[in-house]
Amino acid sequence: MTIQLKAKQVSMRFKERVLFHIPSLTIGPNEAVYLKGDNGVGKTTLLKILAGLLKPTSGEVLPRNQTVLARLFSGAGRKDVIYLHQSPYLFDGSVYQNVAYGIKHKSLEAHDKRAEVISALRLVGLETLADEHVSVLSGGEKQRVAMARAWVLKPSILLMDEPSASLDQESIIRLVHMAEDLLDHGSSIVITSHQTNALTKLCRKQWWIKDCTLIESPLLQIIDKKQTNQESNYVASNSD
């Protein structure tokens, strides 16, 4: 299921400082948005407000409805909206257990749940590490586990906060493939990043937080097919 998320007259204030005031914004369905802005302008704060993790000083985000699963999973407070932190929290357990956590309350047979988890791990290239404890993973592998955990929930909206920071090439391309799969199924994504990369190239809309408000514009890009093929070949050659 896909949803449309709307924010109206959303403001965030810290004491006397107004971080931002956004009259309105809308996400989705099936949108890819690049959120940019200087350090400290409130990109992470805005994503957390949209995810229901922070309450704005004023204004509202609709829909308001919540589910038990949404509150349990990664602290998400809004239905079908998942916030993926730059340094994701992983539970003390195996790679498989971390990904399976997101769907443990879904009404699926055990073998169907396992198939979902393995499919997610295969997409991020970690199926061979399913039984490994998360403590042995690299930073990039942990981010891929977090992405797989989000993917199995099939969120309507995935909010990705600096997802490619300090990741190697393979990890970035794995995240791209998973984000593309979500978009192909009607989900929306919002990505923050300090620099353009393979993930931001998926975006067709830009939000820019500047002068304490949000400027929205289309983001027209020409995809370098040769580069995309080279990146795909890179992943394929390193998956054996």
Output mean pLDDT. Answer: 84
Strand segment tally: 9
CATH class: Alpha Beta
Number of domains: 1
GO molecular function, one term: ATP hydrolysis activity
Protein name: Tungstate transport system ATP-binding protein
Organism: Vibrio hangzhouensis
InterPro entries: AAA+_ATPase, ABC_transporter-like_ATP-bd, ABC_transporter-like_CS, Metal_Ion_Import_ABC, P-loop_NTPase
Concise overview:
By secondary structure, this protein is of the alpha/beta class. It contains seven helices and nine strands.
Set down the secondary structure blueprint:
Blueprint lengths: L4 E10 L2 E11 L4 E5 L6 H9 L6 E5 L5 H5 L8 E4 L10 H7 L8 H14 L15 H13 L5 E5 L7 H16 L3 E5 L12 E6 L2 E6 L6 H13 L3
Helix pairs in contact: 3-5, 4-5, 5-6, 6-7
Write up this protein.
This protein has about 240 residues and is α/β, with parallel strands linked by helices. Helices cover about 30% and strands about 25% of the residues. The protein contains 7 helices and 9 strands. The strands form 2 sheets. It has a 6-stranded mixed sheet with strand order 5-6-7-3-8-9, sandwiched between helices. Strands 2-1-4 form a 3-stranded antiparallel sheet, with helices on one face. Strand 6, helix 6 and strand 7 form a beta-alpha-beta unit. Helix 3 packs parallel to helix 5 and helix 4 crosses helix 5. The longest helix has 16 residues. The chain is globular and about 50 Å long. The protein starts with a strand and ends with a helix. About 5% of the residues have low confidence.
